[in-house]
Design brief:
The protein is mainly alpha-helical and about 190 residues long. The chain contains nine helices and two strands, in the order ααββααααααα. A two-stranded antiparallel ribbon has the order 1-2.
Length: about 190
């Protein structure tokens, strides 16, 4: 392991070419697509509980800002093109333009942000990794909740009731898990 490595990707694979980077970007998108299939619909909202948040933040922090951004952009584009990668094996523009489209946009921005924070060593300790994951999660909701309000033609308060409040506890658990995995991965790589 290189102690000066900016991200887990660069610590594990210090010298990669374009081919390896493409594989990592595709693998990150595949992880998000798999996590999207872990989905629990809630009867009172069009927004389901999924594993996407966890995966998007972890991909960003592991790959760094540029590769994390590329990975989530690739995930988004593949879904738009018709691959059933969104939650519940959904796909296409119609799904993206629906009530959860803002969260998909948020995943892209959050992956870039958590990657940027990881490049500044926020992923090395539990407390700072947790802060990085929380920042990414805030970005996801900052994109998703207003989009949901517009799509439902509802007030911001209604959108918060349907698109944020029911997910706080689960997201905190996902954030804690991701924040614990990152420093643990660094310790494992150091061995």
């Amino acid at each position: 392991m290189r102690p000066e490595a900016a991200t887990l990707r660069s610590a594990v694979l210090p010298r990669t070419g374009l081919g390896a980077d493409v594989l990592l970007v595709v693998a990150g998108a595949a992880l998000v697509a798999l996590a999207a299939q872990i989905s629990l619909p809630l009867p009172f909202t069009p927004v389901p509980i999924t594993g996407q948040t966890f995966a998007a933040l972890l991909v960003g922090a592991s790959l760094g800002s540029l590769r994390g951004l590329a990975s989530l952009l690739f995930y988004w584009l593949v879904g738009l093109a018709g691959a059933p990668v969104y939650q519940g094996q959904n796909e296409g523009w119609e799904y993206f333009l629906g009530p959860t489209g803002g969260y998909l946009v948020g995943f892209i921005v959050a992956a870039a942000l958590t990657g940027w924070l990881a490049e500044r060593r926020w992923d090395r300790r539990f407390s700072s990794a947790l802060a990085a994951m929380l920042c990414g999660n805030v970005v996801i909701y900052a994109c998703g909740v207003p989009w949901l309000a517009a799509e439902l033609d509802a007030s911001l308060e209604t959108a918060l009731e349907k698109g944020l409040y029911p997910f706080i506890v689960g997201d905190l658990l996902k954030l804690y898990l991701a924040a614990a995995l990152l420093p643990g991965a660094w310790r494992l790589v150091a061995r």
